[in-house]
């Protein structure tokens, strides 16, 4: 017998009220570090860096930072994780049962991130905290009787060296408890279909049989899925098939460039909840209405450090300095950009995840992702962050009354050796490239004074090329970047941009 939504909502609300917390956020973070060090003190990594001695220090945070170096994936993998695929107790007790494959948006070959049982529990714990926050949004009780459609990567994992590999969303699906079957859609059987198009076809077929109240997934792929459902069932609105749809948990990429497209296919407003869920952890989520900022998960198996994304922490290209300033939670400032460094219960130690964030609040501690360290376009001093580029694209879209969801940009050199920015904009709108180029250039000058200066010096001009969504999807298909968790790099190398331009030309 179904549990009435009013009882579920009341239970969550009561749990929220009874969940007292008397510790400060900073104390939580110190506790997290101590627990991580204590658990891993007898691993190879823990012995090498003397975790037992660090735990005796009066200031454990300071001692940890002075002893353990900041690392990226390649350093961590080459020195430790490759052994952890074969030998137990390398960076975390035991051997991970799973490794998450993650090429992200900047890497060429897939990275393999260890996924431990403690780490899976930490992700579930953050998910539970998100659910506890739902009463803040004052949803109607009927929502708690609906189903949630999570658009993940394939849940069909491959076995290698005694562990299973796949994208993190597919690993999570494989570890859902059986009682998730009550509300999780499309279900493990459909989620295990490897081929993206076949998986979407099965979702489209089953859609009328589901009572979807919430969606979760990367906006580009969720939008395609919703449009396919509408097309197949001849609908004018997605609410014609799912009238109780009220919530969309987005993540992976910035949502704003997709907002108009989602509004266009809905008869009712959607509450948008942003999430920061990566292969390396589930770090934050929107916990209250009226904001897209995300509350940081402070007591769930993660210890955070924050490197200022300025001359104190990075060089002119956005690369970390040899000895960057590393700040703890009690030292951060609102609206200052930081490179995020994490230590986790998956055996990640002072690991640079590659994201740049800023705090919009310290009560509670809420963050926004402003970009990737590799999405920082600064070849000739333009200092364009992903956040600034996203804002310019949204304004350009609004000004011209069209949807521009995706874009790619690269710093290029022409035949005369002059630098310029090459932009690719994905839209089905009818626009003049020359006019759009001028408008985009002016918007960027207004938003970023460094860009304006660069345009008077080394950055001689910009070029804009418009492509349709069909051409963009062809590009994704030909480069094997099609799938529910795939993110396209916004800032490309000159080589990758040239390849994209050649593909566009050959399919014109």
Fold and architecture overview:
A hairpin with a 2-residue loop joins β9 (271-278) and β10 (281-285). It is built from 17 helices and 18 strands. It has helices spanning 5-18, 25-40, 44-48, 51-54, 60-67, 73-84, 117-133, 168-174, 188-191, 196-206, 219-232, 259-264, 386-400, 433-447, 449-455, 469-478, 494-506; strands at 98-102, 111-115, 147-150, 158-160, 163-166, 184-185, 212-216, 247-251, 271-278, 281-285, 294-296, 302-308, 337-344, 348-362, 365-372, 406-413, 419-426, 459-467. Helix content is 35%, strand content 22%. By secondary structure, it is an alpha/beta fold. α10 (196-206) crosses α11 (219-232), α13 packs across α14 and α14 (433-447) packs across α15. It has an 11-stranded mixed sheet with strand order 6-3-7-8-9-10-11-15-14-13-12.
Notable characteristics:
508 residues; alpha/beta; eleven-stranded mixed β-sheet; four-stranded mixed β-sheet; 22% strand; disordered N terminus
Short overview:
This protein is α/β, with parallel strands linked by helices.
List low-pLDDT spans: 1-14
Mean pLDDT: 87
Can you count the helices? 17
Strand order of the largest sheet: 6-3-7-8-9-10-11-15-14-13-12
Judged by helices, strands and strand pairing, the structural class is alpha/beta
Number of strands: 18
- Envelope shape: globular
* Distance, first to last CA: 57 Å
Q: What proportion of the residues is helical, as a percent range?
A: 25-40%
Beta-strand content bin: 15-25%
């Amino acid at each position: 017998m179904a549990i009435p939504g009013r009882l579920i909502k009341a239970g969550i609300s009561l749990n929220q009220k009874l969940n007292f917390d008397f510790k400060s956020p900073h104390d939580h973070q110190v506790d997290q570090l101590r627990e991580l060090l204590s658990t891993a003190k007898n691993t190879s990594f823990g012995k090498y860096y003397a975790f037992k001695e660090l735990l005796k220090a009066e200031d454990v945070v300071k001692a940890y930072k002075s002893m353990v170096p900041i690392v990226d994936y390649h350093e961590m993998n080459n020195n430790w994780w490759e052994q952890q695929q074969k030998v137990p107790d390398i960076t975390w007790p035991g051997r991970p049962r799973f490794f998450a494959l993650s090429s992200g948006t900047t890497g060429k070959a897939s990275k393999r991130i260890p996924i431990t049982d403690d780490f899976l529990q930490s992700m579930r714990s953050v998910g539970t905290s998100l659910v506890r926050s739902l009463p803040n949004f004052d949803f109607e009780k009927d929502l708690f009787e609906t189903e949630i459609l999570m658009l993940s990567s394939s849940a069909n994992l491959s076995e290698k060296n005694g562990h299973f590999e796949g994208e993190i969303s597919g690993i999570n699906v494989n570890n859902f408890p059986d009682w998730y079957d009550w509300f999780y859609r499309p279900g493990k059987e459909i989620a295990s279909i490897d081929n993206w198009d076949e998986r979407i076809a099965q979702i489209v077929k089953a859609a009328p049989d589901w009572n979807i109240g919430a969606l979760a997934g990367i906006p580009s792929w969720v939008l395609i899925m919703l449009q396919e459902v509408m097309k197949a069932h001849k609908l004018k609105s997605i609410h014609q098939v799912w009238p109780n749809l009220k919530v969309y948990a987005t993540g992976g990429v910035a949502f704003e460039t997709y907002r108009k497209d989602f509004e266009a296919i809905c008869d009712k407003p959607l509450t948008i909840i942003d999430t920061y869920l990566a292969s390396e952890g589930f770090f934050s989520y929107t916990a209250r209405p009226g904001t897209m900022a995300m509350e940081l998960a402070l007591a769930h198996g993660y210890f955070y450090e924050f490197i200022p994304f300025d001359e104190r922490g990075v060089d002119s290209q956005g690369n970390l300095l040899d000895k960057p300033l590393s700040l703890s939670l009690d030292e951060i400032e609102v609206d200052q950009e930081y490179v995020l460094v994490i230590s986790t219960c998956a055996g990640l130690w002072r690991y640079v995840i590659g994201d740049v964030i800023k705090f919009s609040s310290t009560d509670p501690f809420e963050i926004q992702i402003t970009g990737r360290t590799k999405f920082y376009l600064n070849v000739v001093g333009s200092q364009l962050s992903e956040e600034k580029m996203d804002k310019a694209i949204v304004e350009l879209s609004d000004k011209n009354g069209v949807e521009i969801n995706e874009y790619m940009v690269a710093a290029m050199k022409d035949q005369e050796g002059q630098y310029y920015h090459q932009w690719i904009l994905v839209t089905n709108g009818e626009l003049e490239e020359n006019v759009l180029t001028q408008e985009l250039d002016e918007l960027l000058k207004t938003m970023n004074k460094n860009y304006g200066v660069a345009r008077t010096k080394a950055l001689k001009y910009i070029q804009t090329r418009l492509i349709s969504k069909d051409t963009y999807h062809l590009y994704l298909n030909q480069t094997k970047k099609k799938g529910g968790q795939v993110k396209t790099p916004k800032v490309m190398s000159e080589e990758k941009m040239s390849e994209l331009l050649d593909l566009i030309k050959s399919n014109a």
